[in-house]
């Protein structure tokens, strides 16, 4: 046995009782008897595997034992490479940065914008003890997927260095108390109180990639716009962005082209083209692209659209790699409820005959508004061709597809637009890949192509091409620690700085990012927090807690953006917004003294960000931070996390004889309670929530329909996947935060 092995066992004995380590010591002794001259690394590899095999619901602490052994192995490897002792492995951070910046792995700004003295000071803030906060799966996820690697794919960055590099990158251009702001950002990240979005986590401080999570484009009804969108989608997908595409303006199958009737092939071939792009243009070689396409429920191609991902039928009518979302007005849901007829139109014919685009309208009030007025005009006009079907038949096709494939996502467009704080500048047609981003959208219009001085010059009038900049609070750690008031201003500043720092290869997206300065501060670890507070999921107490907690998060987020506006200026389109007029606060019933004071401050100084909150799925980063995903209930208390090359046992966080009673599987929870919780928190979130519905594959159609009707009636703006026990679904990596 080497001295290192003895030291590691002694260290573990200081952290755990003799009874807790009994199995480990026995397994270690047996292995050492068989491998007398083994190295520390060989012993560590063997003991990690042995320790992982011991993880179960009765003894979840083994994940931290495995993580400690893995850490010591990492420290040993890095100390050898850096030619220092294990205890000094973090102390050479400035030299490490300089070496790998010169090698082209880090961006030069890390060493040119920070002085040698500042780098030494930042190195002194690295806290090695915070490495011990990781579970094994969290640590392995970080080391396998996010830290900097050299050209031989060997990791050259330790966990605390990744956090510090992210903090340094995002705060590099701050002019006042910059080092203190870096330190605060590092504090937030390294304590796992929050996570940044996957692109920021992966790319901050590196020489390639961009920092935003995902994007949304609007396709105009022209061949030029369709192909321009495909190019833009490919470009963004290449750099690691997930894409949402609204195709509701494209004419339907059988529509006319230049007066020739029946010439159009509809949306299907263009969706298939996007499907090929998703498969062909992978995200930095890590995974194929991810694209969600949205269509209106009154579009004539809606039935073809709903069948796109089905496993049977004509393969020429399928696009298995595209995720579908349906844009639903209140009137459709009312018609389903009344078992009435629904009229399907061609958007091109509506424009030609009626002189307006039906998709450009929404109901300004519940039960009344311009969409239903315009829709009634279309129905009444005999010159418009249409297909008339029972609304419930469309709903049946929706539910059939959801139970087989998990999609379409449901986008309740009227409620989204009614609550849009920037409706003075446009409207929201659809959402993103994960249904939590709602920002103003418009198509980029082709104007001309000319030859000037032997250079081909293309001119396009930019539309609003939405950009999502995301970050999430780890509720399971931040709320018990009582740090929200300190944490949220740090997060908002970090997100706002992403906007300035990001290099987006699509110019209209860059323009939109700067016009609205939209961010999406979200949360994960909701079920973790409920368990810690001993609150049952299916209870009024959970609903009231969601309402109270998210109101506090909203208050702190809006205040932080307002304070940033006072320091750096409001976003360019602030004037005339609901923030400016106070309508934002009226609609949500914010009338306490605290809220009224903030309302006055916003009216005076503005908001730095036009959009501020969104709750993303964050499945991968919640694993990294050792908590539960998003606002979802758990699948089960123990499971195996399966990736390409490994399978690791995992238990839910802080599992104990007390918390076990509060961890109920999603598939056995009445989803109406989940909807009720989300209706409560949705009031406080200006954008949206990735809300999954979990159902047994034996669910009756009337029960699934009742869930959808309840979600819509409750004011929920979207639902994400319908997760049936028989459906395997893609996790959105881009929005993970």
TrEMBL record:
Is NADP tagged as a keyword?
Answer: no
Give the signal peptide as a residue range, or say none if absent: none
What InterPro entries does this protein's entry cite? NrdE_NrdA_C (IPR013346), RNR_lg_C (IPR000788), RNR_lsu_N (IPR013509), RNR_R1-su_N (IPR008926), Rrm1 (IPR039718)
Q: Which UniProt keywords apply?
A: Deoxyribonucleotide synthesis, Oxidoreductase
Which E.C. number(s) belong to this protein?
1.17.4.1
Q: Which GO terms describe its molecular function?
A: ATP binding; ribonucleoside-diphosphate reductase activity, thioredoxin disulfide as acceptor
- Give the superkingdom in one word: Bacteria
**Which reaction is this enzyme known to catalyze?**
a 2'-deoxyribonucleoside 5'-diphosphate + [thioredoxin]-disulfide + H2O = a ribonucleoside 5'-diphosphate + [thioredoxin]-dithiol
Top-level EC class as recorded in UniProt:
oxidoreductase
Per the record, its GO cellular-component terms are: ribonucleoside-diphosphate reductase complex
Q: What does this protein do?
A: Provides the precursors necessary for DNA synthesis. Catalyzes the biosynthesis of deoxyribonucleotides from the corresponding ribonucleotides.
Q: Quote the protein name from its UniProt record.
A: Ribonucleoside-diphosphate reductase
Q: Which organism is it from?
A: Lysinibacillus xylanilyticus
């Amino acid at each position: 046995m080497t001295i290192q092995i003895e030291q590691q066992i002694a260290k573990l004995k200081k952290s755990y009782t003799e009874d807790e380590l009994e199995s480990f010591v026995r397994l270690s002794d047996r292995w050492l008897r068989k491998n007398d001259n083994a190295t520390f690394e060989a012993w560590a590899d063997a003991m990690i595997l042995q320790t992982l095999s011991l993880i179960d619901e009765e003894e979840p602490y083994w994940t931290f034992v495995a993580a400690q052994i893995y850490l010591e192995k990492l420290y040993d490897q890095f100390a050898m490479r850096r030619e220092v002792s294990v205890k000094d492995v973090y102390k050479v951070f400035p030299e490490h940065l300089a070496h790998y910046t010169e090698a082209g792995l880090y961006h030069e700004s890390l060493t040119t914008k920070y002085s040698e003295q500042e780098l030494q000071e930042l190195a002194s803030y690295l806290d090695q003890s915070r490495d011990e906060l990781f579970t094994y799966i969290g640590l392995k996820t970080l080391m396998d997927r996010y830290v900097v690697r050299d050209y031989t794919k060997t990791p050259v960055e330790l966990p605390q260095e990744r956090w510090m590099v992210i903090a340094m990158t995002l705060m590099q251009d701050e002019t006042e108390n910059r080092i203190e702001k870096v330190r605060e950002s590092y504090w937030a990240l390294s304590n796992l109180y929050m996570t940044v979005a996957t692109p920021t986590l992966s790319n901050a401080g590196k020489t390639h990639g961009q920092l935003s999570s995902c994007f949304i484009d609007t396709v105009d009804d022209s061949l030029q716009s369709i192909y321009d969108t495909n190019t833009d989608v490919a470009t963004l997908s290449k750099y690691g962005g997930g894409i949402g595409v609204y195709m509701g303006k494209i004419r339907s199958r059988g529509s006319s082209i230049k007066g020739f009737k029946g010439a159009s092939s509809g949306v299907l071939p263009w969706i298939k083209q996007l499907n090929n792009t998703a498969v062909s243009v992978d995200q930095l070689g890590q995974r194929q692209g991810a694209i969600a396409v949205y269509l209106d429920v009154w579009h004539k191609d809606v039935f073809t659209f709903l069948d796109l991902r089905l496993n049977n039928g004509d393969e020429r009518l399928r696009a298995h790699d595209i995720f579908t979302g349906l844009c639903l007005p209140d009137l459709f849901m009312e018609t389903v409820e009344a078992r009435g007829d629904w009229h399907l139109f061609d958007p091109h014919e509506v424009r030609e005959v009626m002189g307006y685009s039906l998709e450009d309208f929404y109901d300004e009030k519940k039960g009344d508004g311009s969409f239903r007025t315009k829709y009634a005009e279309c129905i009444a006009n005999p010159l418009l061709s249409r297909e008339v079907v029972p609304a419930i038949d469309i709903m049946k096709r929706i539910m059939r597809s959801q139970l087989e494939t998990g999609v379409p996502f449901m986008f309740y467009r009227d409620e989204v637009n009614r609550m849009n704080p920037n409706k003075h500048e446009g409207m929201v047609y659809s959402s993103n890949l994960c249904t939590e981003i709602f920002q103003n959208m418009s198509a980029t219009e082709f104007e001309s192509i000319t030859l000037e001085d032997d250079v081909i010059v293309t001119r396009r009038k930019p539309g609003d091409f939405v950009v999502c900049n995301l970050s999430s609070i780890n509720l399971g750690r931040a709320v018990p620690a009582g740090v929200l008031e300190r944490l949220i201003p740090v997060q908002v500043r970090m997100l706002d700085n992403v906007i300035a720092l990001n290099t987006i290869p699509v110019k209209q997206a860059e323009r939109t990012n700067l016009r609205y300065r939209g961010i999406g501060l979200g949360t994960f670890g909701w079920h973790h927090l409920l368990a810690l507070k001993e609150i049952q999921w299916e209870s009024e107490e959970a609903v009231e807690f969601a309402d109270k907690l998210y109101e506090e998060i909203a208050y702190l987020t809006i205040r932080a953006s307002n304070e940033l506006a006072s320091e750096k200026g409001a976003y360019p389109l602030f004037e005339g917004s609901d923030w400016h007029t106070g309508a934002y606060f009226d609609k949500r019933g914010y009338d306490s003294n605290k809220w009224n004071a903030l309302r006055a401050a916003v009216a005076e100084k503005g908001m730095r960000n036009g959009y501020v909150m969104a709750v993303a799925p964050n499945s991968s980063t919640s694993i990294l931070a050792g908590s539960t995903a998003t606002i979802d209930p758990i699948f089960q208390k123990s499971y195996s996390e399966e990736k390409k090359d490994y399978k690791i046992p995992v238990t839910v966080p802080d599992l104990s004889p007390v918390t076990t009673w509060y961890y109920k599987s999603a598939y056995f929870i009445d989803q109406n309670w989940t909807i009720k919780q989300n209706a409560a928190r949705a009031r406080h979130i200006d954008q949206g929530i990735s809300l999954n519905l979990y159902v047994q594959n034996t669910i009756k159609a009337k029960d699934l329909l009742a869930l959808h009707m309840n979600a819509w009636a409750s004011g929920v703006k979207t639902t994400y996947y319908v997760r049936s026990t028989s459906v395997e679904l893609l996790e959105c990596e881009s929005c993970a935060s």
